[in-house]
Write a structure and sequence with these properties.
By secondary structure, the protein is of the alpha/beta class. The protein has a single domain, classed as TIM Barrel, CATH 3.20.20. About 40% of the residues lie in helices and about 15% in strands. It is built from nine helices and nine strands. The N terminus is likely disordered.
Length: about 240
Amino acid sequence: MFGLFQRHRSILDAGLLKGAVDNHSHILYGLDDGVKTQEDSLAILRWLEEQGVSEVWCTPHVMEDVPNTTEGIRARFEELKAVYDGGLRLNLAAEYMIDTLFEERLAQHDLLEHGEEVVLVETSAIAPPINLWTVLERMLKSGYRPLIAHPERYRYMDMSDYKELHNMGCHFQMNLPSIVGFYGESVRQRALYLLDKGWYRMVGSDCHRFRAIQAQYSAKELKKETIEKLSGLMDSSDEI
């Protein structure tokens, strides 16, 4: 009788983190609403390494309310690398809110790229900026590939919006907590839809807190077919 029920597994016990690349995190301490101290950054990195992760992208927020400079982010990254003695490969980019500050940085080509000519961008989860599509087109014309952070979380988008973004050349990055229901069932369903479509190019933790990522990665929510689809993305970065 029990064999009729499908056993759900967690990200951890499914082994999805072995060799994985975390393409989106707020582990770089003291720059935004993510990790606050160097000690916490190091603790998370050591734990991720223990789980088998191979690379981590540090992607602090840049927005009008958190106007981190490229120079300031780079300096903090060098501080972290100087004290981290583990085996993870650490990479640096930023997560840019599409706002006036981003448009200024875009015009100046003052952007921390997520790989060659790829830029991680986000919007509010509730409503888009008025000029969303114009800015994305401007990015493409300027030689940058928009990497849309956690598109499944944008409640204002419908399936036609995702299709248009995909067709215009944008890449999608899934938040792993989305697929285990951390942001709610509607977000999880959107993530499953985009995963089924094959439109995600990479995944990330969007890690802000140590306890949160431990809980998210331990949640037993994944079916076998979802694990199989995720496995092909876990070691993927913008270089695929």
